[in-house]
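Structure (tokenized):
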């Protein structure tokens, strides 16, 4: 079984530690050998970095989710900069714009820009979140040259093939998750079929999108069916893409303690 990397899994929230350990074990036996945990609120950052320090297949991506942008301040900015220098921190995330929840867009945008500045300064890629804000987020990323400078993953992608092509052309990867398994998925299957395999990575977005992190393999299988390519090719490429961007080192035989 070739290794998989889950580039977006919220293991810290809201499940308690024991349940998380069980879910990690299930995903590991399903072939997942690398987990990237994005931040949501500053209060959770220390926990995810500590988890990444304890578990050799877990990596941290602290950042402030746009829904909680009002929690940003100078102290929080300093803390994020400090964490960004930690060895087990591989990205800043999840950051972006959310047109459905959170404070006013101008606040979200200011907080996004400050976090992008930290990512650029610390030379870390970003995990991006966009809801009802695709065009504006693209503009900001272009203005700051985020793609060519550090790159990133557009998580939970649900926009058009045209946008996906632009993003990949600018140095970003498209995060493909359980939305692909839905009967009524329309745009994402097209994106997954038409894009070069070099533009795709896998994610579960557990627990928001699925109750089971082991579903990652099913997402890969679905990509293989849609593209009419061997599963092995999909696993090899998506894992290599994630490793190249994030610098994740896989420890053979999975891990933990
Ligand atoms: Zn998320």
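Design, position by position:
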């Amino acid at each position: 079984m070739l290794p998989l990397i889950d580039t977006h899994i919220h293991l810290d929230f809201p499940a308690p530690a024991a349940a998380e350990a069980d879910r990690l074990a299930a995903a590991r036996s399903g072939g997942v050998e690398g987990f990237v945990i994005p931040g949501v609120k500053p209060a959770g950052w220390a926990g995810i970095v500590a988890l990444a320090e304890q578990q050799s297949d877990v990596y941290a991506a602290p950042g402030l989710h746009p829904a909680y942008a009002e929690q940003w301040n100078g102290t929080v900015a300093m803390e994020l900069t400090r964490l960004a220098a930690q060895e087990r921190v591989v990205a800043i995330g999840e950051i972006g714009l959310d047109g459905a929840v959170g404070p006013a867009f101008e606040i979200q945008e200011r907080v996004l820009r400050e976090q992008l500045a930290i990512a650029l300064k610390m030379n870390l890629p970003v995990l991006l979140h966009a809801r009802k804000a695709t065009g504006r987020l693209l503009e900001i990323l272009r203005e700051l040259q985020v793609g060519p400078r550090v790159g990133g993953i557009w998580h939970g992608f649900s926009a058009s093939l045209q946008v996906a092509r632009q993003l990949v052309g600018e140095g970003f990867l498209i995060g493909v998750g359980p939305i692909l398994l839905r009967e009524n998925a329309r745009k994402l299957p097209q994106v997954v079929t038409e894009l070069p395999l070099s533009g795709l990575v896998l994610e579960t977005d557990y627990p928001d999108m699925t109750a089971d992190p082991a579903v990652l393999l099913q997402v890969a299988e679905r990509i293989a069916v849609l593209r009419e390519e061997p599963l092995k090719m999909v696993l090899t490429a998506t894992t290599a893409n994630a490793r190249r961007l994030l610098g994740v080192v896989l420890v053979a035989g999975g891990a933990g303690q």
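Reviewer-requested clarification: The chain has one domain: 4-246. The two ends are 21 Å apart (CA to CA).
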